[in-house]
Design a protein that fits this description.
single chain; about 220 residues; alpha+beta; 6-stranded mixed beta sheet; 4-stranded antiparallel beta sheet; 7 helices; about 30% helix
C-alpha cells in the first residue's frame, strides 16, 4: 500500500475548485510548454474523457491556458488567462477526442509554429495536483515532473548512456530513474534526478554527439 504524506491528503496550493481539473491541468500544461519550447502562435488542447466533459465548469480551460503562459497553479491571474492569451496574440483552440486507453483526465497539447511545424505532448492529471507525461511527439515516455528531468533523443550507439551517467556523476548528481526506449535506430532517454539541473550539466550534455533533441525540465510548484 502506498504511503501518504500530509501533502497528498491536503492537496496543492492552487486557484480553482479541483486539484485534478485546475492545479494538475496548470502543471501539466506548463511542463508541456517547457518541453515544446517557445515561439508557437497557436495551442490546441485536445481533451479526453472527464476533461472533455467538465472542463468549462471546473476551470480546466483557464488552467490549461495559464500553464502555456508560464503561470503557477497558485497564480491569481489564472482566472484571466483567456484575456492574457488574447493580449499576447496567442490563438487558443479547444477540441474533444477519444485518445484511447488513457486516464480520464488526459489532454493532448498541440503547439503550432509559424514555420508550419507542430509539436505535441500527451499527459494526464491523476489527482492531488499530480501529473504524468506519457507521449512526446509520438514517443512513449513516462515521467511525473516531480523531479528534475532530462529528455533526450539520439541516434542509438554504444556508450551514450555511460557518457550521460559520467557527466551526472562528475557534477555530483544522483540518478533517481532512467528509462531508454528504442524505435529502429533512434533512442529516447528519460532520466530523473535527485537534484536540480545546473548550467554545467547543460553545457556538457549539449556537447554529446548525434543528439537530435535535448530538454531539461526542473520541477514546478504543485
Amino acid at each position: 500500500m502506498k504511503d501518504y504524506g500530509t501533502f497528498d491528503i491536503l492537496g496543492p496550493i492552487m486557484i480553482g475548485p479541483s486539484s485534478s481539473h485546475t492545479a494538475g491541468a496548470a502543471r501539466l500544461s506548463k511542463i508541456s510548454k517547457g518541453i515544446a519550447g517557445d515561439g508557437f502562435y497557436e495551442v490546441e488542447f485536445i481533451l479526453h474523457g472527464s476533461f472533455a466533459k467538465t472542463y468549462k465548469g471546473h476551470g480546466t480551460d483557464k488552467a490549461l491556458i495559464a500553464g502555456v503562459l508560464d503561470m503557477e497553479p497558485s497564480d491569481e491571474n489564472i482566472r484571466n488567462s483567456f484575456d492574457i492569451a488574447k493580449d499576447r496574440n496567442l490563438n487558443i483552440i479547444f477540441s474533444e477526442e477519444d485518445l484511447g486507453y488513457e486516464h480520464p483526465n488526459t489532454v493532448k497539447i498541440l503547439f503550432r509554429y509559424p514555420n508550419g511545424e507542430e509539436f505535441y505532448v500527451i499527459g494526464s492529471s491523476i489527482g492531488g495536483g499530480n501529473i504524468i507525461i506519457t507521449d512526446i511527439n509520438g514517443n512513449k515516455v513516462e515521467f511525473t515532473g516531480d523531479k528534475p528531468t532530462i529528455l533526450m533523443r539520439y541516434e542509438d550507439r554504444r556508450g551514450i548512456i555511460s557518457e550521460v551517467s559520467s557527466i551526472l556523476s562528475m557534477n555530483n548528481l544522483n540518478i533517481a530513474t532512467m528509462k531508454v526506449t528504442r524505435e529502429k535506430n533512434i533512442a529516447t532517454l528519460v532520466c530523473e534526478l535527485d537534484s536540480e539541473i545546473t548550467q554545467a550539466i547543460i553545457d556538457e550534455m549539449t556537447k554529446l554527439e548525434e543528439i537530435s533533441y535535448l530538454k531539461f525540465i526542473n520541477p514546478i510548484e504543485r
